[in-house]
Design a protein that fits this description.
heterodimer, A: mainly alpha, 2 domains, two-stranded antiparallel sheet, 2 strands, B: Rossmann fold
Amino acid sequence: MLGDITIGQYYPGDSVLHKLDPRTKILAILVYMVSLFIVNNFYGLLGMMAISILVVAVSKVPVKYFFRGLKMIIFIVLLTVALQMFMTPGDVVWQWSFLKITKEGIKQAVFMGTRLVLLISITSILTLTTTPIALTDGIERLLKPFQRFGVPAHELAMMMSIALRFIPTLVEETDKIMKAQAARGASFDTGNLIEKVKALVPLLVPLFLSAFQRADELAIAMEARCYHGGTNRTRLKALQYTGKDLAAGILCICMVAAAIISRTVS
Amino acid sequence: MSLELKHVSHIYQEGSAKESYALRDICLNVNEGEFLGIAGHTGSGKSTLIQHFNGLLKPTSGEVIVDGVNINGKEAKKELKVLRMQVGIVFQYPEYQLFEETVERDIAFGPRNLNLSDIEIQHRVTEAMDMLKLSKKMRKKSPFELSGGQKRKIAIAGVLAMKPKYLILDEPTAGLDPKGREEFLELIADLHQQGLTVVMVSHSMDDIARYAQRMIVLEHGEIRLEGTPQAVFAQSELLDQIGLGVPTLTRLLIELQKQGWDVRTDLFHPTDVSQEILRALSKREQRKGADLC
């Protein structure tokens, strides 16, 4: 029932993107996001879209698999688009009682919608091509300089990797409980909103219960192996920048430059 | 009236790189009143198979027919709830599906979904608890303060309260201690005695040997063997190959035979096996006596 959730999942492969240092990938995505908001006209947006498509192609993640992950966010995108379309004041193009669409609204909606989709595509490429462990290591290393100001870098990274690790487990668990309750005549997709929310109780109670139980078990397992946080912890695979990372960095700088230049084109 | 699977195949993640057959061309009949055992290794498709019995999973191809109605057909759409009521599935570790504040309310969840009257619901809860020999004191307790075995009984009671005609159990004895295991198997045999059609999935040949009248053996989503336990266990080499083996007592007889004893190897009930061994012993005694003369 829920096999479609691919958020945060790793797709094994050996593309260039898989081999990049996680720090490079995280920083590159930050740069991409910034560029995405620097860009202010359609040419720029098209450029960003092209980059995004190129990145997906390079990652060698099957397009079908990739889009299945995106299906989840359609609702959020549609909501954003609708809000932008109806709420932006300006030249009215179309009106029906209190609803009105403006020229500025359409432009905003297209922009925000595209940005959102691109944003999520590129971040899902990050998790698709990076193992959770590499991702955590990367985040931890990047946050290290901020430790001086009290940012718990290791703990944050650990929390995130555990969260990512448990997404598929929880999905599986939800699926199992849904089926068990459906076998007892529960239905999750019929009735009005109140009935639907009520129908979630038989799903959520067992789910929370088992999640807490799992958390408890995990904590014990970690303690049994003498886990005590990040101090003095060494790594099996130390992160190392290579020539590929340098190339990626240069490409990123080009991207920002192009984004800034694109603002002058109109 | 029966539960019928016609050429059912199920493919997971069809069309992607991870596409895999979970079931391949399964033809199976569950006759009313019988006790069918389904044996198979982890990943052999057992659980996938039983989820087809009440329409939780749709076959990629083929048909599932419950009492003459194709449950994935058009006419069944409105009646899916009723059909699901006919086929009660108890999943593996069913205690994880409990969620209500009291035992009573949890068992009543199924009947409530069927929109029955309060009196009928109460009646069914009492009946289901009686069937599983749960004491009345338990009714008002929270299911979460009970022991694992009791929780499992309550979960089964929750399915029985819907009055299914077919009861499907997925590894009902998984994770129980020997005593609890024994108790559960007795209970299930008892339910069968009371007229329920029982399908029990297990990877333990001993469990299936005890009560099943007929059994199938699954491997890689295909039916490898089908027949009475006696006929199936006679194929000990094939069963070993699949990795399931034969019941412990049958294994004993096979070992005896290897050592030159003249015994049958298609038995598995404790009484049958002990009689067979005694018979072989006395036969040998007789021969010894004859040799001496």
